[in-house]
Amino acid sequence: MAFWNTSAEQPLELQSASIEVQDLEIRYGDVPAVRGISFTVQPGEQLTLLGPSGCGKTTTLRALAGLERPSGGTIRIGGHVMYSREHGIDIPAERRGLSMVFQSYAIWPHMTVFDNVAYGLRVRRRPRAEIDTRVRAALDLVQMGAFAGRRASQLSGGQQQRVALARACAFSPQILLFDEPLSNLDAKLRADMRIELRELQHRLGVTSVYVTHDLEEALAMSDRIVVMRDGIIEQSGTPTEIYAHPRNAFVADFVGSSNLVRGKLRPELARDGLVALETASGEVVYGDPCGRSPGADPTLSIRTVHLQFSAERPQATVNAWPVTVRRCVFQGDFTQIYVSWGGRDLVIRSAALEPVSEGQSAWISADPRRCVLLEGAIATAGDDFTVAPRHSPR
Amino acid sequence: MSDTAIARQSMPRVSAQAIAGMVVAAIVGVLVLYPIFFLLQAALDVGDPDVRPPTAYGLDNFAALGRYTGILMNTLLVSAAATAMAIVFGFVTAWILTRTNVPFRRTLEQLMAVPYYVTPLLGAFAWSLLGAPQSGFINQFWRALGGHGVLLNMITPFGIAWVMALFEGSVAFFMIGAVMKSMDPSLEEASQVLGASRLRTMLFVTLPLVAPGVLGATIYVFAEMLGSFTAALVLGLPNRFYVVTTAIYVLISQYPPRLPLAAAMGVSLFVVMFAMMLVYRRLVTSRSFVTVTGKAFRPRRMDMGGLRWMLFGACALYVLLSVVLPFATLIFSSLQRIAVAFPTAANWTLANYRGAMQMNAVRSALANSLLLGIATASIGTLLVALLCWLVYRSRLPGRGLIEHVAMFPQAVPRLVFAFGMMWAWLIIPLPIYGTIWLLLIAYLTVFLPLGMRTISGVMLQLDKTLEESAQMCGAPWIYRLRTVTVPLLRPGLLACWLLLFIASVRELGASILLMGPHSKVITPAIVESWFATSAELTAAMALIQTAVVAVAMGIFVMLTRQAAGPGVE
Fold it and tell me: Which DSSP state fits A41?
C-alpha cells in the first residue's frame, strides 16, 4: 500500500549526483564533533549515517547541506567542490542544489500546503504552469493532492511529514538529505513510512543521505550504512555486511545485541578455515575469521539470536555447551534467556514459546560461521562478554 | 540549479548577509559608542571649559562629586524606598494571582499591565494634585472632615518613591509572577508527602526556590529607579530636592552650565547601573535553581476560603491607586477652572482643553512627536529586526559583541545618554543639532534594548529549521527573510513597532535636553507647562497626549488587522 500515486508518468525527474567527503572535520569551539571522516555516496545510492546521539551524524549531514561550517576537509557534490578548507571555498546552502527533510518537518505555518511545496520552484522563477504541474505531481506522489489548499497548521504529524517530502522533491534536487525524518511519528506509522520512503527513493533514483539512530530504520532503508561514534566512522558497508560481520565491539553491540567472547587463540585446533578460541574457563569456541587477523585480544561476536537454546544435547560437534538457566524474561516476540556459561552469563534471544524455568539445565550451541572474529585493537572492557543487550526500540 | 551556476559560485565572495551585517553593526556601534565616548571625554575634561577638544584631562570632576554626597544619599534613599515598595506590591500581587484561588483572576492579571502604561509623568501630576500639602485633594478632604494640618504630603522624597513604586510594581509583578509560574509544584508536594507542614514547606521549600527570582527583580527595579528622572523632576524640583538625574539636568540647564561635572555624575551613575545590570544578568542566566526551567507548570492554587475576597481587594486596591485614581484626578482637574476638591457648578469648564489645543507649542510639539514616533518605530523596527537576526541567527563573527553593544543603553539613563549625544553632535558639522533629526537618532539609540527584547523573544521561539528549510529550497538570504522570516515574525514586529511608537511619543529624559526651540516635542512641553502655567491646563495636555497615543494605537491595530486579511490565525 504505497502512499504515492503509481500512475505512469510524472514530471519529477531527479538527476542524481555523487557525494565525496574527505577528511571532514567539524568543531564547536574547541569541541570536535566530527574528527576527519571520509566517505562517498554513488549517484542514486541511499546511504545512512547511523550512530548514537552525539556521534556527529547530524552535524555531518548539516555540513553536507551547508548549514554547518566545517573546520577542515573537502566536500564535493556532483564533482564540484562545495567546501574546501584548503581552497577557502564554502558554497552557501542555497546554492548547493540539494534538498533536505527536517526532523521537525519545518512546514511553514503561514503558507498553504501548495505554497510550501511550490517554494523551491518559485525561488527558481519557474513559469506558473510548470509550478502548477510539478506541485500537483509532488503532492500526488505523497497522496496529499486533496490537501493543497490547506494551511500547514491544519495537518497532522504524518501529513506534515508527507508535505515536507513533497516540498523536498518538487524542485528536482540532485540530492535528498533526511535528518531523522521519522522520529516524531508514532511507532506504527513509522514502520509504514520506512518502507514507503525506501520505495520512493528507488522510484526517483535520487542520491540520498539519511541520518538515524534507529537500527531497524537503517537496515530497512539503506544501500549502505556508515556507523559513527564520537565523530569517527566505526564501519561502513551494506546492511548485511554490517549486521553479519561487525568490525568491532561497538558496531556488534550497536547493530543488534551481541555476546562478546574473548579468549586465547588455539591455532593447533583450527580447522575448516575457522579459528579456535579458548576462553579463560577452558571452553573452546570456533568462529569465522572473515579474513581478518586477530589482534592481541582475540574476540568473537555471537549475536543473541544466533545462539541456539535446547533442552536436549544438540547434534553439533563443536560450539555446543551445557549451561544452567539463570533468568528468563518474556518479551513478546522473543524470550530473553540468561544462561550461566563457564562462570559467566550469555544472553540468548529465543523465539520458541516453550517455558524455560530458572535453574534448569540445558544446552546452547552456535554455528561457527555466525561467530564472527572482530578486528584487532578493540578497546573493550576487561571482561570477555557483554550482557547488556539493548532492548529493541519498541 | 545548473552545474555551471555552481561552478561560477565556487569563488569566495562577499554575501548580502555579510554586507548587511557590517552595515548594521557599524550603525549600532556609532549610535551607541560615539555618544558614550564624548560623555567620557567630557567627564575627564579638566581644561578650559570653553575649548573643545579638551585641553587637559584628569579625574578632578570625579573628585568634585564628593561635595554632592547629599544628592547621592537622596538617590539611594528614594530608590531603596521605591524598590522596597514596588517589590512588595509585585510580590503580593504575584503570589495572589498565581498561587491562590482569588476571584476574577484573569481580569486582574490583565489589569496588572495597565499601571506600566500610566507612566511616572501622569502618576506624578496626579499624586501632586492629590497630595500637595495645601491644595491637595486628600488634604482638603482631611481638613473638611475636621482634621488639622497636612495628612499626606507628596511633594517629598516619599512622594517620588510612591509614584515610582506604583509604576514599577507592575514590572515587579510580571518578573516575580513568571518565577512563581515556572516553579514545579511537585517540589512542594514532595515536601508535604514527606510530612512537612504547610508553613514548613513555605519557609524551607517555596521561599528559597523563589528567592533568586525575587532578588533578580529587586536588582533590576533598583537599577531602573537609580536612573529614573520624571517623578523626581515633578515632585522634587519644587522643594529643591535633587536625585542624581535631576541634579545632572540642573547642572546642564543652569547658567553657566557645569558640563564636566554633570558628565562625571552621569558616568558614575551608569557605571553603578551597568554593574547592577551585569549582576542581574548573571543571576538570571546562571540557572542555579531548578525553578527557572522555561517549562510552564500549572501552579497549585491554595483555597483561601472567605479570605480570597480580601486578596481580591488587595489587587484591586493596587490597580485603583496606580490607574483609576490618577486618571480620575487628572480628568477631574482638567475640567475645572481651579482644581479644588469640592467643585461648584461654575467651576466646571472645557476651557483647559480649548486652551491646550490652541497653543501653538502644543500643536507643533504634538505633530513633531507623532512624526518622530512613526519614524522611530518604523526605522527602529527594521534596524532591530535585522540586528536580532544577525545576532541570534547568523554565523557572523562578533555577533555576541554586537548584542552587548546594542543592549548597552539599557544601563545608561536616557538623560545621561542624551547628554553624551548633545556633546557629540554639537561638534559635528552636520546641521542636525537642535532639530528633530537629533531626536530621531537619540530615540533610535535609547530604545534599541526595548526593541531587541521584544523581537528576540519572538525570534528565539521560532524554530531555526523553518528558515533552514527555505535555504535548502535554494532561497537566497533576502528572499528567505521576505517570504519566511518576516511573515513568521509578524506579531513580534508589530509589537515592536507599537512599543517603540508609544515609548517615543512619551519620551522625556532624552527629549528635554535635545529638543531645540523649533523642534519641540510633547512630553517636555507638558513638563514645562506644569512648572510655568496651571496644573489644570497641564492635566488637559497630558490627557490629550494620552488620548492621541491611544487613538494612534487603535488606528495601527486596525490597519494591521485589515492588512492581515482573512485566514491568518
Answer: E
